[in-house]
């Protein structure tokens, strides 16, 4: 159980999405990588300043994979965020990508569910932990950014370890409709488990100086 709990620590501060008006599952064994259409990636050079003073710089969409957004954080290597929401591992990329693709273009009521193997980098040899994720476009909202209202999508994600009962989490994202930036993120544990990411709110959007 401890290993499964520690594994969720690898997911980082941005994870999520996916389906049609009705919820649908993804076959782990049969899913294959696919392109994702309808994703709004934050434009290159846009910087989101968060309430913890983290500056996240965006680099637009991957030219070879337009459904994947490129993100730079201070002191870290550039990240590839599928759908602008989650980073994946080669072992589970096809399954999670298939799930996320079902959410786009974003519309209230779309939802999906996916089962896959989460991979631990905390051990010398890869270990695989069965995990279930659910995604739902829960609604729309107006996000107050420095006194200006920005229309946003509300996306709800769930993650449940199929090995560790304590690994049961809910994530809420507010996603800017215009730019695709995750404006706020909250994470809660349904069972009192350790949280694998900190909540944040964007306090400013600016264009990076060259």
From TrEMBL:
The keyword Signal applies. This is Tat pathway signal sequence domain protein. Residues 1-19 form the signal peptide. It comes from Pseudoroseomonas cervicalis ATCC 49957. Keywords: Signal. It comes from the Bacteria.
